[in-house]
Amino acid sequence: MNLKKQSFKLSSLILVAICFFTLNESKAQDLGADLVSSYVWRGTQFGSGAHIQPWVSLSSGDLEVGAWGSFPTTAAGGGNELDLYASYSFGKFGLTLTNYSFPGEGGAYADGEGLFEGDYLEISGSAELGPINLLVGYFTEVEALYVEAAFSAGPVDVSIGYGDDSKDAWYVNGGSGLCNISLGGSKDVKITEDYTLPLFGSFVYNPDSEAAFLVFGASF
User: Fold this and answer.
1) Which of 118, 132, 165, 220 has its CA at 20 to 30 Å from residue 154's CA atom?
2) Any idea what the CATH number is for the domain that residue 106 is in?
């Protein structure tokens, strides 16, 4: 796929979404942030140390556009990320386009790695199939597929992810197989009469790389 055409399509979609929100009076804005002990995504750790992960979104009906980021709490932590996305919900089904980008320290991008310039456009779909939430994501340029099934087993949230790298090393070092098994949970801690602090944690194991992580976080 031509990268310039790919970037143009996503930027055009976001522009159309912004115009839609401007014309539509029924819209909602939301924002927040998570603080996590480490940034682990689909069985792989990015950067080191604690990360702050802010997000902001604007929705109107079933359409939502937004931005999500992950930034280390120390300059040497690495793993900066800034993603833009547009998603649409069809009831129990959803479709999302996400442009992943990785700015350097101070927010500057390397040549060819700016917003809409890198190789990191993902098309993903989600579905609620009874007690199972299914996610299928495909990176168009690096040709990497990810499939995840998530469900609850009593108080434990379980996610099982499978990666297939048809072109370059991405999820499973150029091959295919399980890359993410996650067992997690959450609780609310009462701070005042009017405020509770949501906490969450998960044990993550990557069978392909034989790596294990224990992640703790809080939402604000």
Assistant:
1) 220
2) 2.40.160
